[in-house]
Amino acid sequence: MTENFQFTLRRTDAGARLGEISMPRGTIRTPAFMPVGTVGTVKAMYLDQVRETGADIILGNTYHLMLRPTAERVARLGGLHSLIRWEHPILTDSGGFQVMSLSGLRKLDEQGVTFKSHVDGSLHHMSPERSIEIQGLLDSDIQMQLDECVALPAEPREIERAMELSLRWAERCKVAFGNQLGKAMFGIVQGGDIPALRIRSAEELAQLDLKGYAVGGLAVGEPQDVMLKMLEETLPVLPGDKPRYLMGVGTPEDILKSVARGIDMFDCVMPTRSGRHGLAFTRRGRVNIRNARHAEDLRPLDEQSNCPASRDYSRAYLHHLVRANEALGGMLLSWHNLSYYQELMQGIRTAIAEGRFADFMAETQEEWAKGDLERA
């Protein structure tokens, strides 16, 4: 741990990167997966459990927390870390994506976005300065610039307009953020599925000399090969000595292929959301625990796992809980999925350290392709 934000690149293996981020509240081993704690909770999980899975950092959501319990209230209560009992780093997104996707009525201009709350219909204004102010009140460790995320497919002119606006907002966010000791603000590369716009966005953000850079506006409906192509175009333009964060991604396969191209940080609701709907991610691929084939199967999901949810509960019991709509089913499967994601990240980090990431990737994909174990 250090008094300031510091990223150290320990080793590269082809495109894959092994490193660590040091901050006053802890060290983040990269490549890292950040569980999503949208409203101050990783759904269906105790944060002690989240930490035990291997998570070094979690994500909070500016949009949701500004609406309730409000950033000002969180600040009066001692900040988000104290309120939720998580002493380690927290990254907060800017709220821009949720404003665009959840607010049925919004007006966007150069100054920011005016929108109605999806909770109670109250009117709010989010400017770049206000976004940074809210994230400061929450006392988050890594704060994201306000950007405009355009859903794909979209017209090139619309993508370019949003990208240019996001660049201007990045400059304003940098000024508003100032020089906060021990914290960082990341810029967000936009540009949709147009390589030239992605490159322009990355080049201009790099000139701002920020602590880190995110790639946004992907995993919003485009095919995986488009997402990967945009990474291949974008990442060489970004500074190699700064962390690179792919926002909202993704599946285990997305993560493997993105690490291979040089991504250091990920977040996604998929492990917990899937768990609440009966879907488990395992070393042998996806398992739908709702299927009747599990009704009398006494095997655990993964007897080799260190996670109690994966190792100590039978598929039959998990199947029963999920089919009966018992909350415990979603809790156990969320715990299992987050553990699997963190085990995957640890496997990735070890493989890069040993210079065998390509082999690890091939072996992992081969195991997924075999599919779930058949009953004896």
Automatic annotation (TrEMBL):
Keywords: Glycosyltransferase, Queuosine biosynthesis, Transferase, tRNA processing. Residues 15-369 form the tRNA-guanine(15) transglycosylase-like domain. The keyword Methyltransferase does not apply. GO terms for cellular component: cytosol. InterPro entries: ArchSynthase1/Queuine_TRR, TGT, TGT-like_sf, tRNA_ribo_trans-like. Substrate binds at D93, S94, G95, G96, F97, D147, Q190, G217. Residues 248-254, 272-276 are annotated as: RNA binding. The active site is at D93 (proton acceptor), D267 (nucleophile). Gene3D superfamilies: Queuine tRNA-ribosyltransferase-like (3.20.20.105). GO terms for molecular function: tRNA-guanosine(34) queuine transglycosylase activity. Pathway: tRNA modification; tRNA-queuosine biosynthesis. The keyword Glycosyltransferase applies. Its EC number is 2.4.2.29. GO terms for biological process: tRNA queuosine(34) biosynthetic process. It catalyses: 7-aminomethyl-7-carbaguanine + guanosine(34) in tRNA = 7-aminomethyl-7-carbaguanosine(34) in tRNA + guanine. Belongs to the queuine tRNA-ribosyltransferase family. HAMAP family: Q_tRNA_Tgt. Homodimer. Within each dimer, one monomer is responsible for RNA recognition and catalysis, while the other monomer binds to the replacement base PreQ1. NCBIfam families: Q_tRNA_tgt, tgt_general. Catalyzes the base-exchange of a guanine (G) residue with the queuine precursor 7-aminomethyl-7-deazaguanine (PreQ1) at position 34 (anticodon wobble position) in tRNAs with GU(N) anticodons (tRNA-Asp, -Asn, -His and -Tyr). Catalysis occurs through a double-displacement mechanism. The nucleophile active site attacks the C1' of nucleotide 34 to detach the guanine base from the RNA, forming a covalent enzyme-RNA intermediate. The proton acceptor active site deprotonates the incoming PreQ1, allowing a nucleophilic attack on the C1' of the ribose to form the product. This is Queuine tRNA-ribosyltransferase. It comes from Rhizobium gallicum. The gene is tgt.
